[in-house]
DNA sequence: TTTTTAAAAATGTGATCACATTATGAATTA
DNA sequence: TAATTCATAATGTGATCACATTTTTAAAAA
């Protein structure tokens, strides 16, 4: 199994950030934007070399990510990004929709006009990323948009679950975006914002569900095949 | 902050189990059955002493459990079982019900008569634990019951989420069970089994939702206070 | 040539240590 | 007496190493 040093997208590192936290965040980001191929064994020392650190922080980061189902520790103790099946993909999308619709419902009573303005700002930024065909930024901003909405509820307990789902879908989002183009994202967010302005729960739920299912509905057989063979 | 060595319930350890896995499973079990008080700082070296191991496996176990929201790493880097608020408790229960109802729905098409027999066997064992007032066994068997049902779906993606919710509620289940007695558990499981035998989805969802909400509905103000102050 | 075996290399795990950070206790100051 | 400062102790973090386990490679056997 020959493999060269893995290239992981860089993230910013603050003064106070421990090495462990940096390793975790950088790996997390890499998974979110699909930079690590599923099924290829990752080694602790290899990742440590990529991150220019000793193995200890990498080990702890791997444990954190495995508990979020973003990485899988195989029976032979090797660490991989989990491979995907068609059925599992379908279950994840269904679960994602149910979870995010639930999160939005729990958040709606706490949504302020100011927050809606913020969401609109994020959405405008996303329009720019679309034009610039900056897929990585778009993925992260999309998450900002949704997270900002759901976290309106101060006792929101669902964010870790949603994050876990995103992490599991991340390796496959890249391919999905390549096939669809990226215009669907903008339309649904604007519908979400309209529903929020009028505090219309049922329209909100519909828009979010459509936002999520649009991504899948437009995938042809070829794209799904590519996702499953990646 | 004086503290003595924490007593953690024992679990069995197989030959192949790594020390890290043992530490993780034992801590996980301790959290599930409410053996660790919320808010009290846990130290790596303290837990390592309790588990009779070096700190490394404990550190990795803590990382895993923090990603499952069972433990919280505070700003000062101390590790605690998260304290509970009334609102957060309510959100967790709502989320738990939504999640488990969804899981049951995703599993129902895969449920066999043989599985229902298995669930019935687990339920009989739970009857025995009720009579023996063995709360710890009851908690674990209750989980077996639900997990067995949901995992009928071979592509079930929800189990880690449900596990995370159980881990978050675990420290407070002990108190809840002390206040309610334990008889409600048996009744709803029998309703679940009846719904399964007739493959009645709406009855199944109702029984599961009731199973979960019964636990809370019967808690008086005194019990909730105790949960929040524990 | 293919299969099996053994050795070497790679990789994960647990232990230990030094250092960085945080908490605690004692002494000093207001 | 309460607040502040400083020293000490406790605790988390990262590095390193030896050992256990798994994989790969080379040699031997069929």
Concise summary:
The structure is a homodimer of 230-residue chains. The first copy, chain A, has 230 residues and is mainly α.
Task: State the low-pLDDT regions of chain A, or none.
Answer: none
Q: Helix proportion of residues of chain A, in percent?
A: 55-70%
Rg of chain A, alpha carbons: 18 Å
CATH superfamily of the largest domain in chain A: GntR ligand-binding domain-like
What would the CATH topology of the largest domain in chain A be? Four Helix Bundle (Hemerythrin (Met), subunit A)
Number of helices of chain A: 10
Largest interface (C-beta under 8 Å): A-B, 31 and 32 residues
Tell me the total number of β-strands of chain A: 2
**Going across the major beta sheet of chain A, what is the strand order?**
1-2
What overall form of chain A do the CA principal axes indicate? globular
The biggest sheet of chain A amounts to: 2 strands, antiparallel
Strand content of chain A: under 5%
> In the CATH hierarchy, what is the architecture of the largest domain in chain A at level 2?
Up-down Bundle
Q: What's the structural domain tally of chain A?
A: 2
Would you kindly provide a written description of the structure presented here, covering whatever features stand out?
Two copies of one chain form a homodimer. By secondary structure, chain A is mainly alpha-helical. Chain A has two domains: 19-80, Winged helix-like DNA-binding domain superfamily/Winged helix DNA-binding domain (Arc Repressor Mutant, subunit A), CATH 1.10.10; 86-229, Up-down Bundle (Four Helix Bundle (Hemerythrin (Met), subunit A)). The first copy, chain A, has ten helices and two strands; from the N terminus they run H-H-H-E-E-H-H-H-H-H-H-H. Chain A has helices at 19-32, 44-51, 55-67, 86-107, 113-131, 135-150, 159-180, 184-197, 201-217, 221-229; strands at 72-73, 79-80. Chain A has a two-stranded antiparallel sheet with strand order 1-2. In chain A, strand 1 (72-73) and strand 2 form a beta hairpin. In chain A, helix 1 (19-32) crosses helix 3, helix 4 (86-107) packs across helix 7 (159-180) and helix 4 packs antiparallel against helix 9. The longest helix of chain A has 22 residues, at 86-107. The mean pLDDT of chain A is 90. Chain A binds a DNA duplex (30 and 30 nucleotides) through helix 2 and helix 3.
